[in-house]
Design brief:
coiled coil; Troponin; 73% helix; Troponin_sf; Troponin I, fast skeletal muscle
Amino acid sequence: FFHLQKKRRAATARRQHLKSAMLQLAATEIEKEAAAKEVEKQNYLAEHCPPLSLPGSMQELQELCKKLHAKIESVDEERYDTEVKLQKTNKELEDLSQKLFDLRGKFKRPPLRRVRMSADAMLRALLGSKHKVCMDLRANLKQVKKEDTEKEKDLRDVGDWRKNIEEKSGMEGRKKMFEAGE
């Protein structure tokens, strides 16, 4: 039992030692990379950006400003060109990936939105501008004439409670009710 515990302790101690050694190695590598990047940056700046020497006369200073403006313009043009190239390649990538999806038979369905549309608008969207037919659904309905009989008229008069209320309201209505009761 004690022998196993001793082995476990030794294994964990060895693991801890290896882990700390690896961390120290990684830290030194990171420091070396940072120093190499700094040296590379200094070399690039020394090569591409010469030290600034300000001339004493006004005319030389104006010429220096003109040179700097010309350099800025050229850099901006390069940046714009690279941006356009990047957009173009991104568009080509999207087109190629869409073609790949189409070739595989997998189609990414776009999110659909509900749209309220009349029948005319729907036919116009499907058939294009050559659609001239008007879809007036009520135009094709059959006209039904209702015959007014005396019986229906009486029922309607009795059934319309609003009419009776209006007739009986006020002094005129009370007078009629009193005369009808006599």
